[in-house]
Amino acid sequence: LAFALAELIDNSLSATSRNTGIRSIQIKLLFDDSQGKPAVAVIDNGSGMTSKQLNNWAVYRLSKFTRQGDFESDHSGYVRPLPVPRSLNSDISYFGVGGKQAVFFVGQSARMISKPAESQDVHELVLSKEDF
Prior knowledge:
SMCHD1; two-stranded antiparallel ribbon
């Protein structure tokens, strides 16, 4: 569970790495029975994803480091950050479990809601473990 949560936090660290202002990352554990099943929410003020980027995220074995051709990637020219002792350095997914596997380790479905910074549109992806 710790590695799965670390992966989700790492995704937020990557999404907020180019913020010029405050980087905000929240992790919420939701246990309100009136809202449905328990859930983990990771919320950030990062760059956001388009609907195509959300769909690309849902493709199995399509790493953010290997997206090419028809797939959009914000990581061209990626340079691994220098290690920082006892700190997340936005490089966990290089060796880690990956966002797709992390969400299904935590639960049976994933809902991602994203708004690219330069857009008025909000995009949503809902994916069940069975569909994935």
